[in-house]
Design a protein that fits this description.
It is built from six helices and two strands, in the order H-E-H-H-H-H-E-H. With about 120 residues, the chain is mostly helical. The model has no long low-confidence stretch (mean pLDDT about 95).
């Protein structure tokens, strides 16, 4: 149940990012749900491999390259879906930053399920 709630929260966070940044467009809430799912899958499956491969650059830049990597993942998700459009690299980086901030803030409001 919590997984579905986090998915819905991530879709709402994506809609908020699209509202704030004009170069990121989400067609509908269904598109936001699909984009949140694709972002979750890309971050789960592809991101660990890319973090490992780019570890020397990440160490050299003191971790700032992870922002670039997050932006590339966001841009990739935008290029895979029709209802989710990201206007370029820098909007993807700023969108990824806002998306992670909104997503973590909204996810912290969800109940953890430990109080039983």
């Amino acid at each position: 149940m919590r997984l579905i709630l986090v998915w819905l929260v991530n879709a709402c966070a994506l809609l908020a990012v699209a509202y704030l940044l004009p170069s990121i467009q989400v067609a509908s809430f269904g598109s936001a749900l699909g984009a949140a799912l694709v972002l979750g899958l890309v971050n789960t499956l592809l991101r660990p491999l890319l973090v490992l491969l780019t570890l020397p650059v990440t160490v050299l830049t003191l971790g700032l390259f992870l922002l670039v990597l997050n932006g590339l993942m966001f841009w990739l998700a935008g290029s895979l879906l029709d209802g989710f459009v990201v206007g370029g690299f820098w909007p993807a980086v700023f969108g990824a930053i806002l998306y992670s901030l909104f997503s973590s803030a909204l996810s912290s409001l969800l109940p953890t399920g430990e109080a039983r």
